[in-house]
Amino acid sequence: MNMLSLQQELSENSYPGRGIVIGRSENGKYAVAAYFIMGRSVNSRNRVFVEEGQGIRTEAFDPSKLEDPSLIIYAPVRVLGNKTIVTNGDQTDTIYEGMDKQLTFEQSLRCREFEPDGPNYTPRISGIMHLEGGNYNYAMSILKSNNGDPSSCNRYTFAYENPKAGEGHFIHTYMHDGNPLPSFEGEPKLVSIPDDMEAFTDMLWNSLNEDNKVSLFVRYIDIATGEYETKIINKNK
Question: How far apart are CA 96 and CA 204, in angstroms?
């Protein structure tokens, strides 16, 4: 698989929707995760990321403008021991509760499908990072309708053992803007992951469409110690 420019992937797509990037820094020291949200409606744009425990949650920026909270208010990031869960919906909780009961990442998602927001049927994208004893691996999942047909759910899981330094994978909900919005296709895109967290965060935020971007989360976790640093950028301030 050819490595793509994450900056180009984002800057040339006005609406990838919500996106997850997971990988390993170039020096091999850090497990890296990023999650961003975008919005076309007032309700979707009326959000911010706030820290909650070791994770984050979405929150209405202006509570008076909040309409339907069901698909926009959730915890995108939660931590279960040495596992970090990143998703684009309340399936974060489903994965957390399932893995807490010794189910696998894939098994935990068996009870979930794409979002019930026809005609888009937004895919549920999820990631899990596992650090243990100086070792690191991660997996990504997408649950999507069968080419817009909600009677079938297509389930794909991609697992990456001992990821190579400087490499990561990017998955997002929509191929591009449209009506209805076309779901992501194929396997997660191979992208580079730098050592510099500040530069990576700035690149991601500045590459997202100015009108549609809402919030960005980035975390670098020291693979040896488990210590981490988090950065959050919200358009609404």
Answer: 27
User: Which pLDDT value is given to residue 32?
Assistant: 98
**DSSP string computed for 136-189:** EEEEEEEEEEETTEEEEEEEEEEEEESPPTTEEEEEESBSSS-SSPPBP-SSPE
Neighbours of 227 (CB within 10 A): 8
List the one residue out of 184, 226, 137 whose CA is nearest residue 16.
184
Contact 37, 214 (CB under 8 A): yes
- Average pLDDT of the chain, as a whole number: 97
Contact 91, 103 (CB under 8 A): no
pLDDT of residue 158: 98
Q: Which residues of the chain have pLDDT under 70?
A: none
pLDDT of residue 161: 97
Q: Which residues pair with 84 in a beta bridge?
A: 79, 129
And the tokens for 177? 């803007």
Specify the residue for token string 């998703």: 87
Domain over 6-234 is classified CATH 3.40.50.300: no
Domain boundaries, the chain: 6-234
CA angle 137, 141, 145 (to 5 degrees): 170
Please report the pLDDT score of residue 126 as a whole number.
Answer: 99
Residue from 186, 166, 185 nearest 174 by CA: 185
- Total-model pTM: 0.98
Buried b (16+ CB within 10 A) or exposed e, 136-172: bbbbbbbbbbeeeeeeebeebeeebeebeebbbbbbb
